[in-house]
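Protocol step 4 of 6: record predicted structures for both targets in the notebook before any analysis. Target 1:
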Amino acid sequence: MPSHSLFEVTKHGSLGNQIFNILRDRILNEEYNHGDKLNELTLAKEFNISRTPVRESLKQLELEGLVESIPNKGVFVKGFKPRDIDDMFEVRKILESLAVGLAIDRINDIYLAKIKDVYDLMEFYTKKKDNEKIHDLNILYHEMIYQATQSSYLMQVLKDIHYYVSVTTRHSLKQHQRMETSLKEHKAILDAIMDRDKDLAKSLIVSHINKSQMLVRKYYASKEKKR
């Protein structure tokens, strides 16, 4: 794993929070495996910092349910269980359905153009079969819908959830022809937004999330069987 200098870690936010973000990314991107031990001293040496911010970040990870602290043994990676993933998707369906409805009520030409621009890029990179680029654009597409609600509160709630779901969605995009079908679903959602058809847009976005949920559920179920 690449090391991080003190400057890189502290340039945004508190040191403990930055370490938390780095470790969380590693867990969610499966750079750490279920059951791996996170050693406080080893991490402090890697980041060239004191143990205090590392300890703070490990406590944050425990609150998020991503690690487990066992007395006299240490801190161990838990990662996600299939039920955790399902819960996140269920919450996301409710909130994104609300978001797309509000977006249609409040959207203006500027926000509509932003969503369309992202879709056009998705179309371009789908033809190139660039999985990583499509993953990033998928996140951006949904964030543009959040922005179109012009609700800072809803945007923050959705972004917190979407951070976790976006990591797991990477696995669904790798499934056979999922990039192509996902593009069609995003186009249908965009068309419904442009037509100001709230009922259709809500139905389409829930269906889109359902399909991703099923693929991600299969991925994590297969991982559980291998343990």
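Target 2:
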Amino acid sequence: MTETTAQDPFELAQQAADVLRERTGVARHKIALTLGSGWGGAADLLGETVAEIPAHEVPGFSKPALEGHGGTLRSIRLPDGEHALVIGARTHFYEGKGVRAVSHGVRTAAAAGAQYMILTNGCGGLNPDWVPGTPVLISDHLNLTARSPLEGATFVDLTDLYSQRLRELARTVDPSLDEGVYAQFPGPHYETPAEVQMAKVLGADLVGMSTALEAIAARQAGLEILGMSLVTNAAAGISPEALSHEEVLEAGRAAGPRISRLLAEIVGKL
């Protein structure tokens, strides 16, 4: 089934949100988080888990395609009594399921009542000062997938897509946080050194295979977005070392406890 004949994406997101309300007993999730490589431990620090649901039991979601990514939707009661929805079931563009599937998580978050969307990822860094394990705030992005989650004559302003207000809030937790422009490539292959240099010329500081398409869909849905990257490796050509998924996982494991505490404290500020 092609995207043009598939179920309306907003109806599907509403169905997913209805199942979440039924299964969790939570009427509204104020904050939603998509936790990428290295960030998963933050969920355990946010508060009390109310429910954890296998992703494939919720309409529109499927089991993760990649080791190192979760496969559940988790409802967490925050200390202030609000609830957070942790989406451990990201669909990547390179899986070939289409941009509707990529955007389903953030659209479900909006349908579940979210006001804030926190998008995280593991990525390659172009700044040699950002050693593996460095968290970086996303200030803007380059969408190099040649696709959009928006359909038809849907014109959405992407100015301040990654909220400056939320970046400033994050710096009240850690003033040393740097920021940069994230470039989403289609994947699943890593970028060539020439492609990394192209991205650098275009203004990128970070390269990866997620986040940009989700952020566009989140803005369409009216969510305020905080984007954070974990530099898991130097991008191709920045370092002479070869790239590997194992390296990404190991960098995420090493930095996990520290960045999880950071993210949990930022959520606490919201």
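Step 5 preliminary note on target 2. The helical segments are 9-24, 43-46, 99-111, 164-173, 193-202, 212-220, 245-269. Residues 25-266 form a domain with the Rossmann fold fold (CATH 3.40.50.1580).
Proceed to step 6 after PI sign-off.
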